[in-house]
Amino acid sequence: REPKKVEVQTVSDCLQKDSQWCYTATFDDGTGESCTDTKESCLAMRVSDTKDSAVCGTLTSENDKAECYKNAAGATGDQNKCNMISNPEVKSQCLGRVAANTNSNSDVCASASSPDDCYVEFAMVSSMEKRDSSICNKINDPTKKETCTFFTSTP
Questions:
Q1: DSSP character for 106?
Q2: What is the pTM of this model?
């Protein structure tokens, strides 16, 4: 049985709440709040729900900018947004996220600059829908392989 796709209805601005920056997204099946330490991190995270990558180019932190483009690419399925990321590990994660979110296979990871990061991201994102630990066998780094196995193992 295919999992039901949840549609985002509204997304609030990032607002300061105590020492955190938070936004709220209203879905067709409820509401969720996401919080982080900085406003830029909040804006980067919020792109997952707004699907609007225009804010990514305005962020000053390279880490937040990379996360923003990765979130935008994953949310929209637009692999070209990964090309906006200079960090090779995050760019590879981006490719893995797009492949997982577009129901593609992990073949794109073989040619990524950091294949292990791509495979781990693919496994983590696709494990929300299906648990397939066979992808972990393609990972060389023992720590990343362990992370992959953790996310794809049956609870």
A1: G
A2: 0.84
